[in-house]
Amino acid sequence: MFDHTFAEASIRKECVQNFWKAIDIYLFKTHVINKKLFGVKNVAIIPFKRATASEDMGEFLLDRMIETRVDCFEEESRRILIAQGYQAQENKPTSCSIDLLSQHDHDGAVVLNRLLPKNIAVFQPIDVVCLIVSQEKLSIRCKSTDKRDERSFHWMQTVLLEKMQRWMESSIPTDATGTSTAAVQSLALVDDLQEYNCLFNELKQKYGLSMVSIWPECTDPQKFVFEDIAIAAYLLMLWKKERTATGIVQLQSFVDIGCGNGLLVYILASEGHRGYGIDLRKRKLWDLFPSELKIDLRVETIVPSDASLFPTIDWIIGNHSDELSPWIPVIAARSSYRCRFFLLPCCAYEFDGSKYQRQNCSLSQYGDFLNYATEIARVCGFHVEMDRLRIPSTKRTCLVGSK
């Protein structure tokens, strides 16, 4: 049993309502406090209600479930819950949020997460969590018989507990559009986070080190190279998901409008996708890509008109496309009925090239522009989804438009 409390903090009564929001951050965004992690993949979440169970069964349940194999975890956990007098929800919740579950008359939930390390060669641990709150205190417990790992105990006492307390006693952070980030998942449109992590590491090995070593610009190669690799991994996963859903085998084509250093074009083309990049001026890096690959990078000026459409292209990419950002959905819509778009805006502009002036003062200019661009895309007939990329940038919210 988890009978030894080795870290505890008192929480102000008015902050207890934020407990589950803080738990959401810890469970589903563990990488925020554990820098060795890339992210978290939720394997199972089972909400339950008390039926005839006694009040103190939580620790017993956790003991039993830790011993359960991953491949039969959900089925076995429901059986254990029912046997101990609980009602276990049959279907997986639509949202991985303990905060939301607590608002829908659930007494608790069992969560199984897979923690994904940045270095995939090191470890892939499984974490099983049973949640209990009482007496307006936040505590971390372990078994008194556990072997003591001083480094882990120190981290939980000085980092984890303090972070949890801070999350509870301060307002839960919001994203650019004003939405609470406690349960908002980055890479939400990616089907398999673990597969994305493997692909990202694979692309880093294939392209990252070589590009960093020959980087000719004055900018930080670590930031720009690995940001484009992360975007490439995201698009490759998104396009694979689309091919699976539609049954199409042929790889999607693309055009990157405002391609800058051309690295994203280079990676996508090297991975087999037919496409090219367009920019106002040539970059030094363009001449350093392997000549045998014949990466198609063009110096052109895009003036939104009938002359700047792409009827044979599947996807329009606007990666920090600046003045062209509001035009990306329009260009995609006018290019063909089947053309889709990916937009990762940075600076906010109007259609006429002037700086965007926010309409909603409760949001940042960036957040308000995201809503503006979303509305443009919807007017153009797109189904628009917003997602957050895992890149080293404060402006990492993207829009994905499909028909």
TrEMBL record:
Subcellular location: Cytoplasm
Organism superkingdom: Eukaryota
Family indicated by similarity: Belongs to the TRM44 family.
GO cellular component, one term: cytoplasm
GO biological process: one example: tRNA methylation
First-listed, main subcellular location of the protein, grouped into a coarse class: cytoplasm
Free-text function comment from the UniProt entry: Probable adenosyl-L-methionine (AdoMet)-dependent tRNA (uracil-O(2)-)-methyltransferase. Adenosyl-L-methionine (AdoMet)-dependent tRNA (uracil-O(2)-)-methyltransferase.
Keyword set, alphabetical order: Cytoplasm, Methyltransferase, S-adenosyl-L-methionine, Transferase, tRNA processing
The keyword Transferase belongs to this UniProt entry's keyword annotation: yes
An example molecular function term from Gene Ontology annotations: tRNA(Ser) (uridine(44)-2'-O-)-methyltransferase activity
Annotated catalysed reactions: uridine(44) in tRNA(Ser) + S-adenosyl-L-methionine = 2'-O-methyluridine(44) in tRNA(Ser) + S-adenosyl-L-homocysteine + H(+)
Enzyme class: transferase
SUPFAM superfamilies: S-adenosyl-L-methionine-dependent methyltransferases
InterPro entries, A to Z: SAM-dependent_MTases_sf, tRNA_uracil_MeTrfase
Protein name in UniProt: tRNA (uracil-O(2)-)-methyltransferase
Keyword Thylakoid: no
E.C. number: 2.1.1.211
